[in-house]
Write a structure and sequence with these properties.
The protein is mainly beta. The chain has no helices and 9 strands. A hairpin with a 5-residue loop joins β5 and β6 (85-89).
């Protein structure tokens, strides 16, 4: 139903999430070719929005399958209580990100990583849990409303 997404040895951040309207969001990493994330003709480095048969969903911003671009390695997709789409994304060397994914948004990879300056690329939410926590692996809301977070400080990435 959807072919042509590049692959690589280290980045396999593909996620699937059906939207309330029945369309399907698909994350595609940059396949270790960062320039693909800014190339509108490439599926790499994108959050795609498609119909169940793989065709572009109506209303996509560029007339193809792309919903947003400028992604490195999206590892998670989720809707919040307001049905806004969010993505967790592994950074290259300095900043993992939590990004609000909106129609036509450019998250900046490889032009910027983390907070951007200027209007060309969107910035992720403010820095939280930065410092000595290591890489955040999973976040869950407990029944009492507290946020539980797992991290790894030994993920083999120097």
């Amino acid at each position: 139903m959807l072919t042509g997404i590049s692959t690589s040895t280290h980045r396999h951040g593909r996620r699937l999430l059906f939207a309330p309207d029945g369309t399907l969001f698909v994350s595609a990493e940059d396949a270790e070719v960062p320039s693909g994330a800014q190339d509108r003709n490439s599926l790499a480095g994108k959050v795609l929005r498609i119909r169940r048969d793989g065709r572009a969903a109506p209303g996509n911003p560029f007339g193809n399958r792309t919903w947003s671009c400028g992604h490195r390695d999206v590892e998670g997709l989720a809707f919040d209580a307001e049905e806004r789409l969010w993505a967790t994304e592994f950074g290259g060397s300095s900043a993992d990100e939590l990004n609000l994914i909106t129609r036509g948004r450019n998250d900046g990879w490889p032009i910027v990583e983390g907070r951007s300056r200027g209007d060309r690329c969107a910035a992720p939410p403010r820095a939280d849990l930065s410092g000595d926590h290591g890489r955040i692996r999973r976040v869950a809301v407990a029944p009492d409303g507290l946020l539980w977070v797992t991290t790894s400080n030994t993920d083999g990435r120097a």
